[in-house]
Structures are given as structure tokens and as C-alpha cells.
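[Solved] Which block belongs to which protein?

Original post:
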Amino acid sequence: METQYHIPALLRESIEGLALKPGGIYVDATFGGGGHSRAILAQLQGGRLYSFDQDEEVLKNLPEDKRLQFVHGNFRFLSNFMRYYGVEKFDGLLADLGVSFHHFDQAGRGFSFRFDADLDMRMNQRATRTAADILADYSKEELCRVFRVYGEFRQAAKMADVLIKARQEQDIRTVGRLVDLLRPLLSRQTEKKDLARAFQALRIELNQEVRALEDLLTQALDLLKPGGRLVVISYHSLEDRLVKNFMKTGNLEAEVKKDFYGNNLSPFILVNNKVLVPSAEEQEKNPRSRSARLRIAEKRQ
């Protein structure tokens, strides 16, 4: 029986990282179960919070609060929605990336290898393309890229080859069939972890999560007020590296720009030079927080 939609990782640290102003304007880019949004609202007095999520299921988690404007859309369109609501600049943005625990525990969504179901994996259920379509349409080279880049598999080419051959006999449209095809290629000792990485790779590709994050970061930089805070929790090394480099340089190319005197021209000041991770106590209470990584930056005045 499900008791909670999602337990936010690093909740206290991320809210403190926003350095909330009671009358400020804030964005929660990933509403999910609403844990971060509720914590932000608890500290606002006359301020305004814009919370994004593209999943219809989160609508049941919305609190009744006049200071909250829920945005039913992908955070990659941040600028468009802020313009629509008449917001020129905001004081802070928080993004808790990845997937809510609720989605992993919901068999029908196909996010987890633990339940046999259709290979769906859509974060936006209004979208038409599913993970099964990727396995049906992608070339060997494309599948190899997905598993190598997003799953960090050394045997990505072999995995792609097995899937290409298998789909010629029968479409790969269920979790069970995909697991049966991948299992012989994986170590018995690390099978569960490897299957999780494979499913993660397909999910990231399907939902264009890395591109969406790139769009979010560049738009957040433009929309943050001087002194505003950017707070990001990531769960994948690729995303964490992207966030780290963007906060360090202010661009997606990770190009460090310096002035004549050798001073870093990044538009950000790093609030935590070292990435923050959950304490041993939090990991014990919430094992799924183990991979969480928190980075905080402040836009220069």
C-alpha cells in the first residue's frame, strides 16, 4: 500500500539553499509530490510560487494556496510560461530531477524492471511516443549511444545488437521481454543495478531529459534576479556534471571565461564548492536518496 507519493531528498538543504525571501518569487521546476513546494510556501509571506510538472497525476497533490500557480507543462519551456504569467525575473529556482518514487512503484507506467507492463516510460502521458517505440525504431548505432551515454554500459554495442536481432522476430513492447533479453548480458552480482541503468537510459532518451535540463539551466540564468539562487538535485552523473559545469562557467560548453586579470567571468558564485549528498541518517531512512547530489549557485550582483 502506497503511503507517500515521493519523499524529497535533501529537503532541508535545498530549501536553505534557496535563501528564501518572504515576499519573493520562486519556481519549483519539478512539483511531483509537492514536498519542495509546500516547504517553500511555508516560508513565504505574500510571495509567489510557480510549480511545474508535465504529469497529470500530480494534480491530486496540489495544495489549495493562492500563492501557488501550478504550471502543467515541461520546465524546458520556463521562459514562455514566465512571460505568459507576466514574470520578468524571479528570486530562485529549485529543480529535483529524475522520477518520483510513485512512478517507479506504479507498475503500469513501465519505469521499473520490477513489474511486467507495457514499456511506456512517458513522463508526459499526453505524448504519443513510448520507450517501446525507441526499441522498435532506433538503429543499432542509436541504441548503442543510448545505453553507452545514458546507461554508461561498456557492452552497449552488444546490448544494441541483441535487441535489434530480437525485434526482427517479435516486437519488444513489454518490461518482461526486455528484461529477458538483457539479463544474459549482465553480471549476476550487479543484475538489478544494471537493469536499473538500462531502464534509466531509455527513460532519459524518451523524455529528452538532458536537453530539457540544458534548456532549463540557460533560461534560469536569464530569469534569475541578481543575487537569486539556482538549486538543483540530480541523480545521474551526466546530469550532475552538466549542472556542475554550468554553475562553474555559466555556459553549456563548460568554457571558463576570464578577464584580463585572470578572474573568472562566470555569472554565478558557487554557494557549495563541494557537492552536497544525503547524510548517512537520511540514506538509512530513505535508501532511494543515496544517488542524490545537490548543487547551489547564486547569480552575481
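(Second protein starts here: sequence line, then its C-alpha cells.)
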Amino acid sequence: MSRSIVVINPNSSTSVTASIDAALAPLRLTNGLNIECHTLTDAPSGIQSEADIMQVMPLLSAFINAHKEQTAGFVIACFSDPGLAMAREATRLPVYGIGESAMLTALTQGQSVGVVAIQPTSISRHLRAWGAMGILSRLAGERALGLNVGELINEKKTWMRLLETGQKLRDEDGANVVVLGCAGLAHHRLQLEQELGLPVVEPCTAAAGMALTAAHLAASGK
């Protein structure tokens, strides 16, 4: 049986999962590994607090344990990377968090990274992660849209906030590469990149690309 890259949306929003699935279309190559997207249906509708992360962690662990025999690698598709260290302890397969992967990708595309968060309350949590990664010196800034996950379905409002926030990261904070700090913004990536004139990193494709590379190398035995 062919193994797949399994991308886990650790919230219960099927619209977010659909957005992730669409974003990964360019990585689905003929004769390449399959990429499957799954929703944790018992999870909160959005991961917006430490309490949400604590609720999600055992659900993630149970999902990984149930699927690891048919999987070539896992992606945790929440920018706060909930349960990432625990997931890596639960399996010998490669596990990627989209927040960590996006930031590592951004560091290869610019000197100063600007991050678009969804809520202001997420920023302190992200900063702790960037500090643990040792990359705070490369962070130009992080700014929030001030929208909750449910409000992201308002395309016009989301786009205007996204453009305004990206412009502030570029013009006021000095960012020369921007990271989208949410799994549900992928369809705005190209337009934002064109408007800002800067590279814009979409976190799900960054993490899934890394997972595919690791899986292909493991399968080749090289």
C-alpha cells in the first residue's frame, strides 16, 4: 500500500481544511506521493488560546497513533504548531509544524521576516516559539489582522486587513519577506505577494514541501 503525507487540520473547521487542501494542489505531482488532508472533528473551531492547544494535543496524539502505519510523514496545519514536540516523540516518521516550517523557509528568502497573525493574543505565543528557534534577530515584526477564524470567510474584509498589515510590516517594520500566520489564508498569497513586491510564504505548502522531500529521500534509501 502506498503511503501518504497526512496533513492534519487541528481544528474542526472543514472550510479551513478545504482551503489547506486547495493550497497543496501544486504539490500533487503525477506519480508523486499522495497528500491527504484531515480535520480533527472533535477539536475547537479555531486554535486561539493555550487552552485550545491543551485540548487539541491528546486528539493529535491519538490521530497520529491511529494513522502512522499508512503514512510517510505528518504535517500539523496550525501556525502555533500545537503538540509538535509530542508528535515527534510519538512516531519515528517526520512531523512538520507549519509555523516552524514557514519561518525556516522565510529565512531563505529574506533577511527580515514579517509575520501576519490572526489575533493579537497569538503574537506572544509565536514570539516564544521564535525565541526557542533562535531567530528573533531576524524578525522584523509581527502584526495581527484582529479577526477570528470565523471572520476569515469575509473575503473582502480579510483581504483589506491582510493588505494593510502586510504594508505596515514592509514599510514600518522593514520586512523583506512576509509569512502568512494562518492555515486559512493560502488563496491570498499570490495577490499579496504581487501587491507588496515581496516574497510571501504560505505555511502549509512550506511544511508539506519539506515532508515530501523527506519522504522521497527515505523511500530512495539515499
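Accepted answer:
You had them paired correctly. Confirming on the second one: Strands lie at 4-9, 34-39, 71-76, 95-97, 113-117, 139-144, 177-180, 200-201.
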